[in-house]
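Structure ticket #2291
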Amino acid sequence: MKEEKCLFVDLDGTLIKSDLLFECLVPIIKNYFYALFLAPFWLLKGKAYLKDKFSDLVSINPEILPYNNNVLEYIRKEKENGSKIILATASNIKLAKSISDYLGIFDDVIASSKEENLKGKNKLNKIKLYIKNNNINKEFSYIGDSEADVKIFNETNIPIVVGNKNVFNKIKSKNDKTTFVDGENDFSLKKFFKMIRTYQWVKNFLIFLPLILAHKFLDVNLLLKALVAFFSFSFLASSVYIINDIMDVESDRIHPSKKNRPIASGAVKISSALKVAFILMPLSFIISIFLGKEFLFVLLTYFITTSCYSFYLKKIMLVDILILSLLYTVRIFAGGVALNIYLSPWLFMFSLFFFFSLACAKRYSELYAVRNNLQDEIKGRGYQAQDLEQIQIFGSSSGYIAILIFALYIQSDISMKLYKTPSFFWALCPIMLYWISRVWLLSHRGQMTQDPIIFALKDKVSYVVLILSIIIFGVAKYV
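Resolution: structure written out below.
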């Protein structure tokens, strides 16, 4: 009988740009949080036992996993050339088989059981046993990505290294048949900045608003404090964005645009993303110490609120929008606390209604896309497609109320004290009315495809509105 050629394919980091253990961790946190307290005791019985317990609790949808297309193409060519394709993974057998069944390109699966974790030497021994029992050519091929695979690479005829240049160079020096395949998840600064969403840091410039409105923006000491507060908030916000992206990874993968986010696409592994989050978070709190206990308290409040939002509150209709608007207002309050500047109640009321309007616009754009795709609801949210018009009413009305609050502020005693000629602010009312109306008209047309704040950064009209507003503030102050 003729011996078969065989290609053994690793799963985590090779076939998929992720790790099934961490893929299981997300639904466990969402649906079986108690399991996190049991996990250390399961781990005492071995990593294989832990993986088995996780696979008993959750199942993985193989259809939405971030597959490495280069690897899929390679193994399909090998299959066409007559090779037997075996999925050989340290992941649990139940999850591995579900992926094998979905792809339909594997002839067999060897994977970890409840008793044995197939990693490194254990996997090599299992491969050798499989070869012996199935009359396979001893000169087999293996495709993998990690240091743990080096022992297997040293035993194979054709090592195929995925994405790991260090391992490739090490094996290439011993075997000139070594092949390299792009892993599609190499670290880069571009992916890093996209993951921590530095473009969202623009929202944290609201921290400078108390400094500007108090006309103390030339005070170098206060300006430095505002910068410290800005970076403290930004680092914490980025860590929360990462955790939020991890928790939303399943829904993001089926979203038309969010599927391209670094974590959802597999460009950055969940494990790597968690490491970044757990570095940025304590760094944020360490920086905040320089601004006093009151600012630290505000920062903790922001963190608790955003965490509650990420894990639960975003699923409750309207509550999620209200929380988003409050988080903008908290940034302004944090600036006041950090700089010890009194904040007018007028500012809080204006910001609450103004940002409630923009949060509604964000949710409206998502519902608009849902309705256009003939879907009934936003997955993971409390909204249905039929809520579209009502959200528009809430949002536009709230925006106009914000302008009304500003108009009332013009005649207030506080305004009279701060500005030489506050009556010039009346010129700002029609400008604000125009901008809010334009935001909602564009939303109604389906042209507001992103966060309104991010939209404003790319919108020339919004820059004109901003410049006119600055001029009016200056005239009201000094003329």
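Closing remark: Residues 120 and 149 are 6 Å apart (CA to CA).
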